[in-house]
Amino acid sequence: MTDTQWPIYEVFHQQARGDPHMYVGSVHATDPEMALLLAKEQYARRQACVNLWVVPVEAITASDYEDADMFAHETDKSYRESWGYKTPKTIRSKDVDQDQSS
Amino acid sequence: MKPIESFDDLTTVTRDALVDLLYRLGDDELVLGHRNSEWTGLAPILEEDIAFSSMAQDEMGHAQVYYQMLHALGEPDPDTIAFSRKPREYRCASLVSLANDKNWAFCLLRQFLYDASETVRLTALCEGTLVPLAQAARKIRSEEKYHLMHGRSWVLRLGNATDESHERMQTALYEAYPHALGLFEPTAADEPLTLAGICPREEELRRQWESAVAPVLADAGLEQPETAQAAYGGRVGHHPESLTSLLNDMQIVYKIDPAAKW
Amino acid sequence: MVTAVANELNGLSPQEYDHRLAEFEARINRGEKIEPADWMPDQYRQQLIRLIHVHANSEICGALPEGKWIPHAPTFKRKMALVAKVQDEVGHAQLLYRAAETLGPSREELIESLIAGKSKFSNVFHYPSETWADVAIIAWLIDGAAIINQAMMSEGSYGPYARALKRICYEEAFHMKHGYEMCFTMATGTRAQHEMLQEALDRWWAPIMMFHGPSDKVSTHTKLLVRWRIKLKTNDEQRQQFLNQFVPKIFDLKLTVPDKSIRHDKETNHWHYAEPDWEEFVRVVRGGGPMSRDRIATRRMAHENGQWVREALAAAAAGRSVPMPSAN
User: Quick one: which of A68, B114, B257, C230 has the fewest CB in 10 Å?
Assistant: First the structure.
């Protein structure tokens, strides 16, 4: 028998308008439209869904896990975060520089 | 025409015609759902197996809706209706009774022709005067939307793909078409249902159906059988032998003890 | 220590191999998942392919004994639920073959291997389903046993397999509840229904007791699988969990199990049972079961019967001339 392996499409679904699309899995399909039709029943026959994306697997370029260390925040990056900034809720007199009262 | 809010507002004649219609609708759905479910686990590719099984479940669910309506009209409960009647008491068209014979082209095309007819009919029922039926039809139609997309996508692809697929689809179309016309077999119920504004005449639905399927079949490169003789009889209880064996299969466990719960 | 076989080095020096292996095992010990692009020992890859392949085959062959009863389901609810359940099994096969594909082989290759009789599937699906009660027993007890296995495996180390199993477990929960409802209804129904259910249980008991695989004393695979978190419990541990969970409920339904020696030791919380016939198990999974040939022949028929369809759609896509129809 000749090989009838179909290409792979990755499937993303959106549970409700406003939600981000989430990766749910793959289907084998011959073209994008068929992939959508087939993904609908494999990935949305129970879960709520308002929208599906299908993407040919070759269209995805992934970073290498070997390079995962480049995502690590090894030096202080607290200045990027709201929690990196601390000020008192009210200004007490001792917080104010003496220079201002003279 | 004035909407009919409740079954109680129907005249006896209209009520009897409605019962006849609901048996036709429900039996078509049940028997086709059963036929499609015979593919579960055996379809040409896993993803399509799942899609086709969902459609089988949908059709069975639609049958249940129509049978529940019959029950509200004084007929037995849905399980009794489905599992205890004799073949001649069924009102389905021969299209749905025909055996699958492992023939994917035929089953797919049958499903497409059927879904197109259902969409035409449901649209008419949604616009009809009988409120409970129009409400049910709207729910069912939302599921039919996917069925029709599915059917068109497959028919367009298989009709135009390889020589083999084209030939199989063309053969299937010649085989299925007369039986599909049988979905619109005129019955004595046509007149009262049309007069009450519940459902148009079968011949009118047939015209709408023909104009819905013709462009898709043409796009699929399939030749529409022009001289097809409609296969009638299903609506009055004359069925192909295949329905008898289907019902034997369907009712075998139920009949071990119809009074038992399963 | 695992030593690399020569062809596994793939150009790595033995020192480098040891280093990679140590990193790989450290990752697993930290509870991290292994992803398809990661380096992994060949043995890990091969064991996983074998395991996921058998699992996927089992789903698709498992669809057959139950699928046979879809046309005979006796009520609307049972009929629709059984189609939905068998549909789920097909869906699980789809997810699992895909997980296996991330390790190398294509789905087509995996299916061709199944229908050539070159790869295995679960022992329980080599037996016939003789009555409607078998459907109830399969859904309750075999799916129940499978959940124990799959919930464990879903915590395993290989990312794609673990993710597929999370979803599968969610769906199996419906199967098991539906199965128990069927068993409950028949067990509390007429005398004939109760007898039918008891007979089904009698037929299925031995295959179910073998479902989790050979006793730890004889199983050859377990040790390495546990070390690499492909498997987190031994076969016997899973069997004990199954007995704990299900035997009391079986007795509640006024059913008996065809094993006179079965008893629970409260002190050790351990079930004693007659050791299954492991020779039968080996014979069955190697294709010597009552339905082995039939299952493979049916899968082969389905695959060959669908060949023209798969070819045609691929051809249609190559032309790319087919428009997507609108819904209206």
Answer: A68
Q: Do B50 and A33 touch (CB under 8 A)?
A: no
Angle at CA B39, nearest 5°, toward A26 and B139? Answer: 75
Is the CB of C186 less than 8 angstroms away from the CB of B262?
yes
Give the CATH number for residue A52. Answer: 3.10.20.520
Closest CA to C293 of C102, C127, C96, C95: C127
pLDDT at A100: 84
Q: Quick one: CATH architecture of C16-216+232-281?
A: Up-down Bundle (1.20)
Helix (H) / strand (E) element for C164: namely: helix C159-187
Beta carbons within 8 Å of C262's beta carbon, 6+ residues apart: C243, C247, C271, C272, C273, C274
Structurally, chain B folds into a number of domains equal to: 1
Q: What would the pLDDT profile of C64-103 be if each residue is shown by its tens digit?
A: 999 999 999 999 999 999 999 999 999 999 999 999 999 9
Q: How many angstroms separate the most distant Cα atoms in chain C?
A: 71
Residue B245: list chain C partners with CB under 8 A. Answer: none
Extract the tokens encoding C72.
């005979």
B218 touches chain C (CB under 8 A): no
Cβ distance B82 to C76 less than 8 Å, yes or no, reads yes
C298 interfacial to chain B (CB closer than 8 Å) = yes
Residue A23 belongs to some domain of the structure = yes
Cα C8 to Cα C14: distance, rounded to the nearest angstrom: 10
Nearest CB partner across the interface for C193, out of B40, B158, B260? B260
Number of structural domains found in chain A: 1
Residue A3 banded pLDDT, cuts 50, 70, 90: confident
What is the interface pTM, i.e. ipTM, of the complex? Answer: 0.97
Q: How confident is the model at residue C328 (pLDDT cuts 50, 70, 90)?
A: very low
Segment C251-278, tens digit of pLDDT: 999 999 999 999 999 999 999 999 999 9
| Residue B174 touches partner C, C-beta closer than 8 Å | no
B contact chains, 3+ CB pairs < 8 A: A, C
Q: Tell me, what CATH number does B94's domain have?
A: 1.20.1260.10
* Cβ–Cβ below 8 Å for A28 and B48: no
In a domain, A69, yes or no: no
User: Hey, are the CB atoms on A37 and B153 less than 8 Å from each other?
Assistant: yes
B1 falls within a domain: no
Query: Looking at residue C1, what is its pLDDT?
Result: 41
pLDDT of residue C327: 47
Answer yes or no: do A42 and C317 touch at CB < 8 A: no
Domain chopping of chain C, boundaries: 16-216+232-281
User: What confidence score (pLDDT) does residue A101 get?
Assistant: 72
Out of C151-165, C182-196, C205-219, C231-245, least confident range: C205-219
Report pLDDT for C153.
94
The answer as to whether B223 is a domain residue is yes
